[in-house]
Every structure is written in C-alpha cells, then in structure tokens.
Design brief:
- The protein has a domain at 78-118.
- It contains 3 helices and no strands.
- By secondary structure, the chain is mainly α.
- The mean pLDDT is 82.
C-alpha cells in the first residue's frame, strides 16, 4: 500500500501565511469579545446609566399618574349635561352649514343659469 501522500513535507509559504492570518484573526476575535464584555459591565455600572434608568422610570410613573388624573377629571367634571350641550351645539353648527351651502348653491345656479332654480 502506498502511503507517500501521508508523509510530511516542507511547509509552503501560502500555508505559513494562511496559518499566521488565522492566528491573527483568532487573537482579534478574542480581543473583540473581551472588549464587548468589558464595555457591557462599564455601561451597567456607570452612574450616568443608573441615573438615566431612574429618570426613565420616574417619567413612566408620572405619565401613568397623568393619565389617571385625566380619567378622574373626565369622570368628575364632564357630566351628561355638558355632553348634551356639546351635541346640541354640533348639531346646530352642521345645520347652519347645510343652510349656508344651500343658499350658496341657489345663488350660483341663478348666476350661471340666469334664472331661479326649480
């Protein structure tokens, strides 16, 4: 059986360069992972980050309190009478606009046709 292909031979330059690049890339990858892990701990411990998180929590709490206040004001001060008056005012406004549009339409027809509309 011929096993000459298994015999070790001299290392070629491309193989040596490829191995060196592999080691360099492996070192860079390890350095990158270490940097990411260290950066994460710095951000988690940073006083500015802690203060920012506290402010975000406080803002969220105030937003909830504001919404609760708005609901309470709406329940307490907006009565059925207020809603009825608003509905009546809206109806009156729509009716007024309809009358104005009808009058404008009749005036335009009269101006274009030269005679009163039917």
């Amino acid at each position: 059986m011929d096993t000459s292909f298994l015999a070790t031979g001299p290392i070629s330059w491309p193989a040596l360069i490829a191995f060196a690049l592999f080691l360099f890339a492996l070192g860079r990858a390890a350095d990158w992972v270490g940097t990411k892990l260290k950066a994460g701990t710095d951000k988690a411990v940073s006083p500015l980050t802690v203060d920012m998180a506290a402010v975000k929590i406080q803002i969220a709490s105030q937003a909830e309190q504001l919404n609760a206040f708005k609901v309470e004001v709406a329940r307490t001060y907006v009565t059925g009478d207020v809603i009825t008056r608003l509905e009546r005012r809206i109806d009156d406004m729509v009716t007024s606009v309809r009358h104005e549009m009808t009058e404008t339409r009749e005036a335009m027809l009269q101006a274009f046709m030269g005679r009163p509309p039917r």
